[in-house]
Amino acid sequence: MLPEKSQGKVLQAAGIAIGQSLKGKGGEIQPVGLKVGDKCLLPEYGGIGVVLDDVEYFLT
């Protein structure tokens, strides 16, 4: 068991805009497995936080 302070926070988010594809290591195109509205988990320090019109967004 780990003390609560040593565990990182996990944030839940919903996708509002998803890119079309990703490039693999060999340069091949791989489809993205998320759709707009899908929920995903972000680590505490994952992505970049941006605030626009009093709404916080995370860019990952």
TrEMBL record:
Pfam families assigned to the protein according to its UniProt record, in alphabetical order: Cpn10
One annotated GO molecular function: ATP binding
UniProt entry keywords in alphabetical sequence: Chaperone
InterPro entries: Chaperonin_GroES (IPR020818), Chaperonin_GroES_sf (IPR037124), GroES-like_sf (IPR011032)
Source organism, top-level taxon: Eukaryota
Descriptive protein name: 10 kDa heat shock protein, mitochondrial
